[in-house]
Amino acid sequence: MGVKIVDTALRDGSQSLLATRLTTEEILRVAPLLDKAGYYALEVWGGATFDACLRFLDEDPWERLRAIRKACPNTKLRKLRDGFKNTKLQMLFRGQNILGYHHYPDDIVEKFVERSLANGIDIIRVFDALNDVRNLKSAVDACKKYGGHCQIALSYTTSPVHTVAYYVDLAKEVEKMGADSLCIKDMAGVLLPEDAYKLIHELKKGTNLPIELHSHCTGGICQLTYRRAIEAGVDIIDTALSPLSGGTSQPATEAFNYALKGTKYDPKLKQDMLDEAAAILSPIKEKYLKNGILKPKALSCNPSILKYQVPGGMLSNLMSQLEKQGAMDKYDEVLKEVPRVRKDLGYPPLVTPLSQMVGTQAVMNVITGERYKMVPKEIKDYLHGYYGKAPAPVDPKIQKKIIGDDPVITYRPADKLAPEFEKLKKEYRKIAKCDEDVLSIALFEQTAISFLKRKYGLEAESFSVSL
Ligand code: CO
Question: For 152-161, how does the pLDDT look when each residue is reduced to its tens digit (9 = 90+)?
Fold first, then answer.
């Protein structure tokens, strides 16, 4: 059987290259073609798409999902496991953080999973930045309860603790938790070809789960890495339709369809459908290049990330933080500080929200001229254990300097969060017309409230909270 392909253009491609600005109208122009191309799945929702809809596009993310579902009539094989021929819709879900940036109570997680599946998602890819499996459990349980395909993604990073054995042990654990498939999520694009071969080979031996590889072209090695992963038996790879591929995104789908043609790995995608969809997406990409949302820099590879192990999105964040401070001359110094901060903090993988946190700390350490003189609240929370367990012990001296002798929690961070859904539903009954609206508010508070107010044409006075 050939390698299965998940196309990420409409989610990760848009997020990596277009600051997640692809609109629903643009998505709907290509979705029906991709639906007929023979993919395993289309990644279309979750990650930053939800936030971007509410914050920048003035769109209801739930309506987007329903519209994509409608536009993809071939993607309706929910509750079926492997063996089906049709494509499915996939989303990215940050464990207990859902699509937001902090931990939410279990009832919000469960409700979000339930409504995502009900509105059209088939596969939920759940991950936790720290690979703390306690932070995955609510989402995994809910996904299984409501009949979704639950994929658990392990955040890939390199460090003395992130060995092949570490990932195999984790894979066995998530298999026991009930995952339907496993993904190695290399958000930084730092997985080297031979390391990928070893990792996938050992994972195939250690678990029975189908294995998917998700990487980025940022470092310029992704195609080679995928090739070796395929030779090691990886079941699924993530690629993006050519206009939204390369640079900080995934490698081009068409390239793999051609490169593997006629081999035992042949993904057998319908090239004419891909060509037709790419012809529509190309001028859309040009538009974003012209209006400055797509930065030419994002389109080329940057092998220095292999040295500093910093994801592409984080590089651009660091640059804009330094630009604002008028300190672009400190860029190299900050890049060198990032791995040091990571080591101090017990080697957290650099993925949302940890990538932003570590990046900001590195900038502060360099700009103030004294390490940890200034520390953002999020880093303090992390040291208190509020994000979960650090992969390796935190440097005790650094910990002491930042939080003194404060106790560090050892329970699951969401354990102490009281249920919120019914409370919010009551509190915002005037602006939340359905459960989906309540969830938007639960995740994005003021951003969602102002969006819903505009959507329903409510005046500022009439929606004021009545407790
Ligand atoms: Co990605």
Answer: 999 999 999 9
Give one DSSP letter per residue of 385-454, joined into a string: TTT---SSPPPHHHHHHHHTT-----S-GGGGPPP-HHHHHHHTTTT--SHHHHHHHHHHHHHHHHHHHH
80-116 pLDDT per residue, tens: 444 445 679 999 999 999 999 889 999 999 999 999 9
What is the whole-number distance in angstroms between the Cα of residue 306 and the centre of ligand 1?
A: 16
DSSP H or E stretch at residue 116: helix 106-118
DSSP state of 136: T
Per-residue burial over 360-391, b = 16 or more CB atoms within 10 Å of its CB, e = otherwise: bbbbbbbbeeebbeebeebbebbbbbbbbbbb
Across 39-127, the runs of DSSP E, i.e. the strands, are 41-46, 88-93, 123-127
How far away, in angstroms, is 86 Cα from ligand 1 center? Answer: 23
Tokens of 325: 């401070």
**DSSP notation for 62-80:** HHHHHHHHHH-TT---TT-
Q: How far is the CA of 13 from the centre of ligand 1 (A)?
A: 8
